[in-house]
Amino acid sequence: MNKTIIALLVITIYSFIMVSPSESKVYMKRDEALNTAFPDAVEIERKEIFLSSDQSQTIESLAYSKNESKLYIIYEAKNGEKTLGYAIIDTHLLRTKTETVMFVINPDGSLRQAEILAFFEPQDYQAGENWIELFEGKTLDDTLRVGKDIPNITGATITANSLSQAIRRILAVFKVASDQGQLN
User: Fold this and answer.
1) Taking a C-beta distance cutoff of 8 angstroms, is the pair 92, 114 a contact?
2) Where are the domains of the chain?
3) Do the Cβ atoms of 63 and 169 come closer than 8 Å?
4) Helix, strand, or coil here: 54?
5) Which of 5, 41, 59, 103, CA to CA, is 20 to 30 A from 31?
6) Could you tell me the CA-to-CA distances from 67 to 28, 30, 52 in Å, in that order?
7) The pTM is what?
8) 3-class DSSP state for residue 44?
9) Are 75 and 46 in contact (CB under 8 A)?
């Protein structure tokens, strides 16, 4: 009996240590994030972009990063006939857990905003807003590399590299889809 109680106590304590709710945070759900990014949008249209192998290779070449997916959902925000911008939501691995980021892209292909929607690593590893804002207005023509035109984040190097790779990849996905008429 005592061994059973001790075993249950050990399992309970271990569960709290390994799955700490303070280390996982969902900040915003998809619809709320889209409405926040595009408050003037009358319509937000969802477009499924299926990539060919050639398109995926082009994305990898443009982004200097591996492209793991052949399917992307691009949201186009409109007010009448005017396109206000696009959003792509991406979930990628950091160290051992993931983060989900909404990338808002201007019609000209520049990054308007990157908004972290969910972060499942310890909060100490999360990129701060000021650092993320360094990417605003950037395009694929910019280097967008940590240690080059983007400073590293002390104590969160993996996050910095993963997020900058994700930004390059998403901008490349947008460029390829746009250039090949998949957003029309």
Assistant:
1) no
2) 23-179
3) yes
4) helix
5) 59
6) 25, 22, 12
7) 0.85
8) strand
9) yes
Sheet with 71-79, strands from edge to edge, namely: 25-26, 111-119, 98-105, 82-93, 71-79, 43-50
Q: How far apart are CA 79 and CA 166, in angstroms?
A: 28
- Estimate to the nearest angstrom the gap between the alpha carbon of 105 and the chain centroid: 12
For residue 149, what pLDDT band results from cuts at 50, 70 and 90?
A: confident
CA distances from 72 to 12, 50, 56, 154, 171 (A): 39, 7, 11, 31, 12
Per residue in 99-142, pLDDT (tens digit) is 999 999 999 999 999 999 999 999 989 999 999 999 999 999 99
- Read off the amino acid at residue 68: E
Alpha-carbon dihedral of residues 165, 115, 136, 39, nearest 10 degrees?
A: 140
